[in-house]
Amino acid sequence: MSRRRSPVGSGRNASLGSDRRSPRRIRPVRRSRPSGDAGAVLLEAAIAIPMLLAVALCLAWAVSLAATSLALGDVVRQSARDAARGVPIGEALDSARAAAPGALLRVVHEDDAMVVLAEQQVRAPGPVLEGISVTVTQRVAVPVEWSEGSP
User: Fold this and answer.
1) How confident is the model at residue 116, as a pLDDT?
2) Do residues 87 and 23 lie in contact, with contact meaning Cβ atoms separated by under 8 Å?
3) What is the separation of C-alpha 42 from the centre of its chain, rounded to a whole number of angstroms?
4) Largest CA distance in the chain
5) Which of these, 18, 39, 129, 133, could form a disulfide with 9 (CB 3.0-4.6 Å)?
6) C-alpha neighbours within 13 Å on the C-beta side of residue 134
7) For 48-63, how does the pLDDT look when each residue is reduced to its tens digit (9 = 90+)?
8) Is the backbone of residue 124 left (phi > 0), alpha (psi -120 to 50) or beta?
9) What's the angle, vertex CA 134, arms to CA 129 and CA 136, rounded to 5?
10) 3-state SS class at 55
């Protein structure tokens, strides 16, 4: 039996220095039949993304509520201390109103304590939650450090 020589560029070592390439076999592309799951990812994303945005908005609102509560507590505490030390109530409330604009402030003199009450409305962010608001309330009582008859 005689051995046939393969042409240059074919065989095992075809890529080693040969310019010719062996023809590739083209396979037909099989197309799968459309299933009932087509578009499910798009639908899930269309539902999940607005829900994630709503959760993020609610978290931002919760942080805003916490920050408002802390700031209002500081303002009320300071104005109660001022009123208990003998600073005129009008001045104590004016400094509190400057620090917490939009807050409703009241000062009550109970027995041996000055009580300052503050309320502030915090509206929900964004147009989706428009009309929803929460009232943040702070109440601080500080013992009076002065009396009417003291110099």
Assistant:
1) 93
2) no
3) 25
4) 133
5) 18
6) 14
7) 999 999 899 889 889 9
8) beta
9) 150
10) helix
| 106 vs 116: CA distance, rounded Å | 6
> Phi-psi region for residue 128, left (φ > 0), alpha (ψ -120 to 50) or beta?
alpha
Which is nearest to 80 in space by CA: 67, 71, 89?
89
> Token pair 């009320």 is at which residue?
76
pLDDT in tens, 15-39: 555 556 667 788 777 766 666 676 7
pLDDT of residue 151: 44
DSSP codes, 57-110: HHHHHHHHHHHHHHHHHHHHHHHHHHHHHT--HHHHHHHHHHHSTT-EEEEEEE
Distances (CA, A) of 80 to 39, 52, 69, 102, 120: 62, 42, 16, 18, 17
- The domain ranges of the chain are 46-143
